[in-house]
Amino acid sequence: MRIKDSGVIVAWWLCLAASVLPPRFERTAMFGRPPRHDAPPAAPVVPFERSPTHQALASPRLVIGPNVKFSGTGLTMITDGTVQIDGDFNGDIHAREVIVGSEGVVQGTICAEDIRIHGRVTGTLRGTSISLQPCSITVAKIFHHTLTINTGARFEGMARRSDNPAAVTPNWDEDGIVDLARVKAEVERPKLEIVEPSGAL
């Protein structure tokens, strides 16, 4: 007797394979893949961890260029990073670190952990570590934990040590008032220029 329906033959073959072959061979043989008994175990899933560069970025740094001037009533700059003044700033600065460049001019209050003066400052300085660099001009009241006045630095005013300089409120008296007109004239005084002789005498 001839069976024309091929589906019956396929069903019979599958039933026979299911009863004879092991389950793993049955699953792989149906898709034409040989069984694998030496497959390596799956690697454990490791959670993604950000590198320290992504976790903590560097503190921001604000630079006021030599051709920039900030001036205004009640002007106050506040940041948790570093401020570098190479221009003219008339106001108060509160930062983690303040650097007044050799061409920088600041009139106001500077409050920071680290203050380095290379240029000209008039007003009040409050900082844990304050350094007056050579050729700097500082006319101010200074409240500090550590004060360094380098050779060549010009300082006029009052300096007082404090364990918490930021908490000290300046108490200006008549003898401590700064003559802004005199300081301005000092700042705007033209620099000396040395001219070398053109030839031997």
Protein model, in words:
The chain is of the alpha/beta class and about 200 residues long. Helix content is about 15%, strand content about 40%. The protein is built from four helices and nine strands, in the order H-H-H-E-E-E-E-E-E-E-E-E-H. The radius of gyration is 39 Å and the shape is elongated.
Secondary structure layout plus pairing:
Blueprint: H1 6-20, H2 23-30, H3 52-55, E1 61-64, E2 69-78, E3 82-85, E4 88-94, E5 97-100, E6 105-117, E7 120-132, E8 137-149, E9 154-161, H4 180-187
Parallel strand pairs: 1-3, 2-4, 3-5, 4-6, 5-6, 6-7, 7-8, 8-9
Reported for the largest beta sheet, the result is: 9 strands, parallel
Total number of distinct structural domains? 2
Structural class: alpha/beta
How many DSSP E strands? Answer: 9
State the share of residues found in helices, binned by percent: 10-25%
The rough form would be described as: elongated
Give, in order, the helices and strands.
Answer: HHHEEEEEEEEEH
Number of helices: 4
Low-confidence stretches: 51-57, 168-181, 191-195
Q: What is the first-to-last residue Cα distance? A: 135 Å
Q: Using only CA atoms, what is the Rg?
A: 39 Å
Chain-averaged pLDDT: 74
Q: Give the amount of beta strand, in percent.
A: 35-45%
